[in-house]
Amino acid sequence: MEDEKDIIVDICKYIYLNWISKAESQRDFASKCGVEESTVRRIKNIALGTSKTDYNMSLKTLIKICQKRQMTLEDFFGNINR
User: Fold this and answer.
1) pLDDT tens digits for 4-34?
2) Can you give the residue ranges of every domain in the chain?
3) Long-range contacts: 14-18, Cβ < 8 Å, 24+?
4) Structure pTM?
5) Reduced 3-state DSSP string for 19-46
6) Rounded distance, CA 50 to CA 65, Å?
7) What is the CA radius of gyration of the chain?
8) Which spans of this chain does the record mark as coiled coil (predicted)?
C-alpha cells in the first residue's frame, strides 16, 4: 500500500498536469474553481516536488475542483488509482 504522502503527491500531480498546467493562469484556475490562488500554488509545488512542506488538501477543496471539472470524486480517484 502506498504511503499517505505518495497518495497526496499523486493527487496533486493529477490536478496540476491535467488541469492547472492547461489553464490560462493559476489565478484563473483558482477563480474558476472557487479556491485560493495560494492553494493552487501549493498543489503545483507538491506536484513538481519543489515544496518542502506537506500539504493535506481538504476534501472541500477537492470537491470544488472536481465539481468545476464536472467529475465525480469516484471518477477522480479512479483516475488516480493505478
Assistant:
1) 888 899 999 999 999 999 999 999 999 999 9
2) 4-74
3) 14/76, 14/79, 14/80, 15/43, 15/47, 15/65, 16/43, 16/44, 16/47, 16/48, 17/47
4) 0.89
5) CHHHCCCHHHHHHHHCCCHHHHHHHHHH
6) 22
7) 12
8) none
What is d(CA 37, CA 30) in angstroms, rounded to the nearest whole number? Answer: 5
State the sign of the Cα–Cα–Cα–Cα dihedral 17, 81, 62, 53: negative
What CA–CA distance (Å, rounded) separates 45 from 47?
A: 5
Q: How far is CA 78 from CA 55, 75, 81, in A?
A: 21, 5, 5
CA distances from 51 to 20, 26, 31, 45, 63 (A): 17, 17, 22, 5, 23
CATH architecture of the domain with range 4-74: Orthogonal Bundle (1.10)
Q: Grid coordinates standing for 73? A: 470524486
